[in-house]
Amino acid sequence: MSTSPAAPPTILVLGATGLMGREVVRALRARGVQPRVLVRDPSRLASSDGLDVRVGDLRDRASLVAAVAGVDVVFHVSPHEADEVELTRTVIDVCEEEGARLVFSGIHVFGRTALASWAMRLGYGLLLPRYRGKIVIGRMVERSATDAVILTPSNFMQNDEVLLDVIRGGEFVHPAHPKGLNRVDLLDVGEAAARVLLDPSFPAGSYSLVGPRSLTGPECARVWAEALGRPVRYRGDDDAAIEAALSRHLTGYRRDDWISSFKKLRGFAVTASARELAETRRLLGRPPTDFVDFVARVVAEHGVQAGAQDGAPAGAEPGRQA
Questions:
Q1: Residue 275: CB partners within 8 Å, gap ≥ 6?
Q2: How many domains does the chain have?
Q3: DSSP of 66-94
Q4: Do residue 174 and residue 223 come from a single domain?
Q5: Residue 179 belongs to what domain range?
Q6: 174 and 110 within one domain
Q7: How many whole angstroms separate alpha carbon 77 and alpha carbon 12?
Q8: Residue 271 CA to chain centroid, in angstroms?
Q9: What band does 128 get if pLDDT is binned at 50, 70 and 90?
């Protein structure tokens, strides 16, 4: 007697219009699953076809409760907002009340040796002070009664998409330490998140998601120059260039957050250990995407060709962060 395969869990994706959320939705759809999404503006979704779209806001607890009702697992990424700790506390509370598992993407520096955890908290606190709230959030999620899985990505390659017109104009302003900045493709994060969201037996805990290598700022600029067929100069050591570029695309707290974080990124290298790379390979079932391949995909997707004029999409989520 044959048995029918188990139905996939009911999934809610928060932040589905953001750089990371869109990749999670895309990866779920590629697996034949149409998740529920909670968004403020459905018109910002790449496509709402087949999605269970709920309109609301994390600051509107009633809309969040309604969206989580009947859901097995929730994906959440901490937004770059001044009240991000309170927003995530609300998400945790509602998930606990409704019995939903939480899959969270953000900073997590605990669960290691006590000395390593202390050193990482101190480093983030001193070098990236605007990320102190994200460290608090990571601890909150870890201690929650949500059987939480925490995905910890390195710096997002998609930060470059936010500034694509600046790059096409010949400047690369994203800073990187001379020893390198590890960068991860959010497509890979979406793939890993989809696997976790669809597997109720996936062990709770914290998992690293990294790119295959760390790159310097000039190396990133060179990759873009080769893909675009035009000169791209590294300007990540120029505060005025950073502020001008980010102010063209971001506003308010998010702009200030990015400006502060970008400037600080010059001060320390972000590399990936062999353990983190192996963990990423296990999550993906393949090697992580190389930056060269990411850039080639962006150029193809946006129709960016050698000699093309300015004009680019904008998004807004930095990564490990910043």
A1: 208
A2: 2
A3: HHHTT-SEEEEE--SSTTHHHHHHHHHHH
A4: yes
A5: 155-184+211-272+289-313
A6: no
A7: 12
A8: 17
A9: low
Note the pTM of the prediction, 2 decimals. 0.87
pLDDT of residue 108: 56
Judge if 29 and 73 occupy the same domain: yes
Helices and strands, number each (H, E), in the chain: 13, 12
115 lies in the same domain as 171: no
Query: What percent of the chain lies above the pLDDT cut of 70?
Result: 85
Strand partners, 39: 55
Mean pLDDT score of the chain: 87
Phi and psi torsions of 309, nearest 5°: -90, 170
Q: Which residue carries 């994390």 as its tokens?
A: 58
Predicted local distance difference test score (pLDDT) of residue 322: 41
Q: Could you tell me the two tokens for 136?
A: 């608090």
Enumerate the β-bridge partners of residue 315.
none
Dist. CA 305–CA 254, nearest whole Å:
30
Where in the chain does DSSP place strands (E)?
A: 11-14, 36-39, 52-55, 73-77, 101-105, 149-153, 155-156, 171-172, 181-184, 205-209, 214-215, 233-234
Is position 195 within any domain? no
**Cα(185)–Cα(289) distance, rounded to whole angstroms?**
6
First-to-last alpha carbon distance for the chain, in angstroms, is 53
Map residue 55 onto helix, strand or coil. strand
Q: How far apart are CA 22 and CA 314, in angstroms?
A: 13
Bridge partners (DSSP) listed for residue 155: 183
CB-side neighbour CA atoms (13 Å) of 194:
24
Q: Tell me if 320 sits within 8 A of 270, measured CB to CB.
A: yes
